[in-house]
Amino acid sequence: MDIFKKMKSGEMYNSAEPELLEIQAKANQRVFDYNHTPLYEKEKKQALLKDIFASVGENVHIETPFNANWGINTSLGKNFYANFNMSLVDDTDIIIGDYVKFGPNCVLTTASHPIDPELRKQAYQFNRPIVIADNVWLGSNVVVFGGVSIGENSVIGAGSIVTRDVPANVVAYGNPCQVIRSVNEREFED
User: Fold this and answer.
1) Where is the Maltose/galactoside acetyltransferase domain (predicted)?
2) Residue 13 lies in a domain
3) Cα–Cα separations (whole angstroms), residue 108 to 18, 74, 144
């Protein structure tokens, strides 16, 4: 099986394949270039985003610095905003919808490593995708693990560790993250 297909299959594979390391180094260079492009060079920054990611909607802004293992496995919807220190361990697909906001220091990690220490020594890993629907807000320091989907309009509170799916239209937080309540009109009362 082609190594890139294997990365997306959920099967275990050797992440130290020379071909992968070479491509990843080029991807990391593009992220480095974005992080070191001055803010006033907006057109260059937007062009770099389109070069880094699989797809980029309109009006996407990512504060620097940020990191992505690959970039090419991540799709960003329109009106996406990420505060500083976003980290994307996108060894397989990360799909982010429209009008999504990330607070500082958010981490999305699709990669996992085997429990077996001998396999870890050999650089084996497996990956699970992450899907974040439209109009989701991740507070500061949120970590989302592979295999998780977060439903539209949901809010994930600061410091949460998201290990399971979160449905639409809820406020969830904690370690592990759990649904606390539904999104309702309470936020709009005086």
Assistant:
1) 4-58
2) yes
3) 25, 11, 5
| CA geometry: angle 106, 172, 166, nearest 5 deg | 85
Note whether 87 and 108 are within 8 A (CB): yes
Element (H, E) at 179: strand 177-182
In angstroms, the CA 48 to CA 169 distance is: 33
Place of tokens 């936020």: 187
61 given a catalytic annotation = no
Q: How does residue 43 score in pLDDT terms, banded at 50, 70 and 90?
A: very high
Residue 10 CA to residue 24 CA, distance in Å, equals 19
Structural domain tally of the chain? Answer: 1
* Cβ–Cβ under 8 Å, residues 164 and 150: no
Active-site hit among 113, 134, 147, 168: 113
Could you tell me the CATH number of the domain that includes residue 73?
Answer: 2.160.10.10
Give the integer Cα–Cα distance in Å for 49 and 149: 24
Q: What is the mean pLDDT of residues 133-140?
A: 98
